[in-house]
Amino acid sequence: MTNLLLNIDAGTIDWSRAQFALTAIYHWLFVPLTLGLAVIMGIMETIYYRTGEPFWRDVAKFWQKLFGINFAMGVATGIILEFEFGTNWSNYSWFVGDIFGAPLAIEGIIAFFMESTFVAVMYFGWKKVSRGFHLASTWLTGLGATISAWWILVANAWMQCPVGCEFNPDTMRNEMVSFLQVALSPFAIGKFCHTVISAWIIGAVFVVAVSCWYLWKKREVRLAKESIKIAGIVGLVASLGAAFTGHISGQQVAKAQPMKLAAMEALYNGGTDQGLTAVAWVSPFGQPDYQNEEEAPLKIDMPYALSIMATDDPHGFVPGINDILKGYTTPDGHVEPSVDEKIARGKLAISALADYRKGKKNGADEATLNAQLSTLKENMPYFGYGYIKDKRDLVPSIPINFWAFRVMVGMGCVFILFFAAIVLLTFKIPYVSVIVRRLLAAVGLLPETETDSYDIARLPAWHYMVAIALVPLAYIASESGWLVAEFGRQPWTIQDMMPTWVAVSDLHSSSVMLTFFIFLVLFTVLLGVEINILLKQIKKGPDYSK
Fold first, then answer.
1. Cβ-contact 260, 484 below 8 angstroms
2. What span, in angstroms and rounded, lies between the C-alpha atoms of 158 and 292?
3. Backbone conformation region of residue 317, classed left if phi is above 0, alpha if psi is from -120 to 50, else beta
4. Dmax over Cα atoms in the chain, in whole Å?
5. How many CB atoms lie within 10 A of CB 268?
6. Total-model pTM
């Protein structure tokens, strides 16, 4: 096994990473829209259930139709994504399958079964079941999709912060010792909340965009106006929730993955009273000279903000890249070893494991075996570092993390303002809405004639075009978040435990390269098909009851 792990073709590693990234990116084009539309269509059918008005039934059925198209594509790409753990990452699956496989199995047995069952009732049960049961089926379809996301994100969170497991030197595998620690780790909860809430933003932006297209074309005016109201509320709540959960996630990253946080901020040398970088020049074309530069050029930060985000204390200590490489001591006395020491202790753990297995095979006495196990257990937290050959490999891409993080946060702020404006304008809140309208009119963003007798259906066309343009920007923001999550974790497949190159399957790079391009063509065709079907259904509009 040692030879297998240490002699993987470098091309295989690169192409396996590229293929998995490709599949994940395409998959995430469908998932957030599914989760977001599930909430909005559930609210619309709830209104129908309460009012009995046929209009709301027709509106709910229209958005459910778009949900179904997207749902089917998400299932197709998701299945391929899970298969890749076995084909391209078999060493990883073998090493931690006892842990990683559990949430994925639950996702397939419970969540996916739940989705597939109730989605059939939702689409084909309008005239076959009661209104109450159909409403429950709609919400349960969305709940099933959300539970599915929960277990997948639990598995991903465990890779970012491995808990509830113990290495068994006899089986050479990590084995689960606490399912609750894996399923309910703070990292998993924070990641789930932030990811799902951000998906609601995409759903809300999509609904607003489609509705604005109808207003632009002067079609389906009532459907558009009512949909904008509902999506505006969902989007505003989600945008504010994403900011809050993002703060929580940032704190979890600071504790479990300080190098990721340092890369996100281009923080070369840390300390107390750290500001959050608002503006800086980090070249996107290569790794900066973090060893010799004090900070990124042209840096302007928000005083104390990074310390607050990471520690909830404006004077909190935040380590930089060089601090993590060289080792540091926190103000409360915690000593973090240098990377050189971690590598040395990791090699000691690997050596102790080899000696233990050799001794056990040759019938060594119990005292010797126990001494080797003791050495292994003492140094096991640094086991993965024993495979690191150059400590510079432990610094993830600073440009990717820095800029992706700012795209995500920047667009998050835009969406807060966007949805706040929608809510204030569409709901005509006394005094507040009038003030907002007049301020917007003063800066040229709203016609003067619309300040008092406002009607969202009478806006200039460019307003609707802006709303439509936000759809791809919402996806860019969401994908940027995943870039930070995954690129910031490198070079680890499992944080501090298993480097990426150790996790890959023993495949020839040419076979992985071939499947990469096959998947690229396949997924691109699927995406094109979905967009085409969605556009046709949007152009067709709802089927109103007669």
1. yes
2. 34
3. beta
4. 91
5. 20
6. 0.89
